[in-house]
Amino acid sequence: MSYMTDGCWSPVRPAVFFTTKMDGTLDVWDYLFKQNDPTLSIQVIKLDLLITASSFLTGLTLRQKTS
User: Three-state secondary structure along the chain?
Assistant: First the structure.
């Protein structure tokens, strides 16, 4: 099980939001298309780092996991 680390709404599509998980996965949710599962799930990094969904809109920033 991987915990969610961050989430943010799309700045241009009201029904779309992004979440990131501790395992480096970025999930894209589109409630108009699919309500129970992510529309797209991408493994963006394989390291054990904390990533933020908002960083994908402004440029990727990574922080080392602290415990």
Answer: CCCEEEEEECCCCCCEEEEEECCCEEEEEECCCCCCCCCEEEECCCCCEEECCCHHHHCCCEEECCC
